[in-house]
Every structure is written in structure tokens, then in C-alpha cells.
Design goal:
The complex is a heterodimer. By secondary structure, chain A is mainly beta. Chain A is 0% helix and 49% strand. By secondary structure, chain B is mainly β. Classes of the chains: A mainly beta, B mainly beta.
Chain lengths: 122, 112
């Protein structure tokens, strides 16, 4: 199956620093990538939808200035947590869906997930 | 009504038991459906797609009921290794950049 690579897998940083997380689709092109956050023992929560070449769409309650998303190419999306604080400590996961040959949606398209980034802010 | 609803569980079942989860969705135009499995602190992994005619993969059977707008997952002969959270995923109608919707997940614990 398709592979989505997410780096880094774990980050420990001081409060106030910024952290960048990368999500790459390795063997397919992804016009759309999704960023999720998951706190311990809770479900995945969609933070934003990242669209190649345009601005990300953020879910209600997610600060766009704090969680900067860039989707500069069809294979790379980045999430930058700016001025991280301890409450931002969480498991961040990206996912991507494959683009059709003509640039559109594929039928029965599946989501492929990165392996996640555990962020710990001290 | 939530877009996708699942019973969070936990479902505690003995080894060898049969267990079933349901997932309801609100958008009748939803295009495709999947079950994912997520282990603790790991990314979700695709378990199986759900087809209208129902489909089976080993001990796992998935079904879709469009009239009642729910999907189900049946696990037979439960193994300890089946312990995980099972997420149902609903794809929106085609067109545009509509987001995929996850259920909150159903936690399964298989007990020796």
C-alpha cells in the first residue's frame, strides 16, 4: 500500500520554541493531507485540512496562527507548532489520500497515515 | 447528530468470542466506508473497506446498510491481539476537498 512518512517521530522541546513536523507521501501524489491531534485515551481530532497550493482549512477552535500548515508540493505538507506550550503536548498524526490520474478524486480512496509525532513540551 | 457515531466501549470479551461494532453516519450521500484499527500511541491502520454487498477477510466481516446508514464490523474467534481501538471512517461525496470523517472509535479488550 501507499506510504506516508512523518518526521520526527518524537520531539521534546522547551516552552516557547517552535516545532516543525513533516508529512510526505512517498509513492503517490496527495492533493489533500489532514492533520490530527490525539490526546491520551481520546479519539483523533481533525485540526486542519491541508490543500496543495492553497491555504489550509482549519477546524473550529484550532488557532491558525499557532499551527501553521504549508502544503507546498503534491508530496509534502508541514505543520509548525509555534511558541509551543506544555498544553500543546500531544500525538500529532498526518494522513493523505491519493489523487486520481486526472487530478481528481479516486473512487473508494483510502487514507494513508503517517506514523505520528509525539510532542512533549517542557 | 454527529456525522459519524460509534459506541466508545470498552468492549471486554473473552478469547474466542464473537463481537460486533456498529457505526452510524448522518450524510446519506457518503461515498465510501472503512474500518481502521488503532493501537495505543500508534497511527490508525486500514483494516478493511466496507462494500455494499458485505465483505469478509478471515475472521473479520464488514457490512454496509445504506438504508439505515450504518456500517458494522464483526470479529469472530477473538484473539488477544485484536485488542485495539476500531475506528470507522466515512468518505464524503465526491467533489471538492471535503474532509473524511472519523468515528471516535470503539475500544476492544480481549481477555484471556
Amino acid at each position: 500500500g501507499a506510504v506516508v512518512s512523518q518526521h520526527p517521530s518524537r520531539v521534546i522541546c522547551k516552552s516557547g520554541t517552535s516545532v516543525k513536523i513533516e508529512c510526505r507521501s512517498l509513492d503517490f501524489q496527495a492533493t489533500t493531507m489532514f492533520w490530527y491531534r490525539q490526546f491520551p485515551k481520546q479519539s483523533l481530532m481533525l485540526m486542519a485540512t491541508s490543500n496543495e497550493g492553497s491555504k489550509a482549512t482549519y477546524e473550529q477552535g484550532v488557532e491558525k496562527d499557532k499551527f501553521l500548515i504549508n502544503h507546498a508540493s503534491l508530496t509534502l505538507s508541514t505543520l509548525t507548532v509555534t511558541s509551543a506550550h506544555p498544553e500543546d503536548s500531544s500525538f500529532y498524526i498526518c494522513s493523505a489520500r491519493e489523487m486520481g490520474p486526472t487530478g481528481g478524486r479516486l473512487p473508494n480512496e483510502k487514507l494513508f497515515f503517517g506514523s505520528g509525532t509525539q510532542l512533549s513540551v517542557l | 447528530r454527529k456525522e459519524v457515531e460509534q459506541d466508545p466501549g470498552p468492549f471486554n470479551v473473552p478469547e474466542g468470542a464473537t463481537v460486533a461494532f456498529n457505526c452510524t453516519y448522518s450524510n446519506s450521500a457518503s461515498q465510501s466506508f472503512f474500518w481502521y484499527r488503532q493501537d495505543c500511541r500508534k497511527e490508525p491502520k486500514l483494516l478493511m473497506s466496507v462494500y455494499s454487498s458485505g465483505n469478509e477477510d478471515g475472521r473479520f466481516t464488514a457490512q454496509l446498510n445504506r438504508a439505515s446508514q450504518y456500517i458494522s464490523l464483526l470479529i469472530r474467534d477473538s484473539k488477544l491481539s485484536d485488542s485495539a481501538t476500531y475506528l470507522c471512517v466515512v468518505n464524503p461525496p465526491s467533489g471538492g476537498y471535503q474532509k473524511v470523517t472519523f468515528g471516535t472509535g470503539t475500544k476492544l479488550q480481549v481477555i484471556p
